[in-house]
Amino acid sequence: MISNYLTEKLLKAITGKASSASTANEVYIALSNTEPLPDGTNVTEPSSSNGYARVLLGNASQTLTQKIGDPIGVFSATETVTLTVSTDTIASASIDFEENFIVGDTVEILGSSDNDGHYIVATVASGSITVEASPGLPGTDETASITIKNLSGGKATNTEIIYFPEVVNSDWPTCNYYAVYDAPTDGNLYYAGKITSPPTPQVGQVTLIQVGELDINLR
After folding, report:
1. What are the angstrom distances between the C-alpha of 160 and each of 48, 97, 100, 163, 168?
2. Which end of the chain is more exposed for a tag (fewer CB within 10 A), N or C?
3. How far is CA 203 from CA 33, 52, 98, in A?
4. Which of 153, 171, 194 is the last residue of a domain?
C-alpha cells in the first residue's frame, strides 16, 4: 500500500507540479499490530519501553547503511537463450539474471519453439534462473534467439537481514504489518504491507526479516 503522502509527491513530479518527488534522506521500517491506512493513521507499534525501535533501511548519503537493493525495473531482452526442460532452466550468457530477477517473479518466454508462456522463478544465478517445476517448461530443449521478460518489475527487496532490537520487559503484540517511514519516530508514512507469517516477539527474542522477505512493490 502506497501512502497518500508518497502518492501526492509522485503525482506532482510526473504532472509537472514539482521538479522532483523529493523525499527524506533516511528511511526506516516499523512494525504494526494493526493495518496502516493510506492517510498514515491506524499504525500500532510496540512500546519503546519494551525495547522496540524502528530500523534504518538506508541513508541516501551513506552507502554502508543500505539494506534494500537497487529497484528492479520492467526487464525485457531478446538474446541467445538456452532452455533445458529437464531442469526447468533458462540460461543466457548475455543476461545478468541476478540483477533483473528475484525468486517469486513472473518470467515470460516469447519466441521459443514450444516453451512460450508465464512461469514463476524458483532460483536465481548470475547466468540463469530456474522456474517452478509445476507446471515447469513444457516443451523441448533449445538454444535460440528468445525474448525474456520480467513481469514483476517495479519493486525493491532487502539484500541484507533486517534486525529489530531485542525484546525486553514485556512481549510485543503480534506484528501483522510493516510500515516504511521517513523518520525514526513519528514522520510521514511512505508504504505499508502485510507480514506473511506475523511474529509475536517475546522477551529475549530478536525479530528479523531475512534477505528477500521484504518486497516494496509499486506495481
Report:
1. 24, 19, 17, 9, 24
2. C
3. 17, 11, 38
4. 153
> Locate cell 516477539: which residue?
201
Evaluate whether 45 touches 10 at the Cβ level (below 8 Å): no
Instruction: Tell whether 64 and 160 lie within a shared domain.
Output: yes
What number is the average pLDDT over the span 200-207? 97
Report how many domains make up the chain.
2
What is the domain extent for residue 58?
A: 4-68+156-217
Pairwise CA distance, residues 2 & 95, whole Å: 31
Same domain, 87 and 44: no
* Residue 80 and residue 145 share a domain: yes
What secondary structure does DSSP assign to 70-106, as a single string?
Answer: PPB---EEEEEEEEEGGGTEEE-TT--HHHH--TT-E
Contact 62, 68 (CB under 8 A): no
Residues 102-125: tens digit of each pLDDT: 888 899 999 999 999 999 999 999
- Report the candidate in 201, 205, 206, 207 with the shortest Cα–Cα distance to residue 171: 201
Instruction: Judge whether residue 185 has pLDDT over 90.
Output: yes
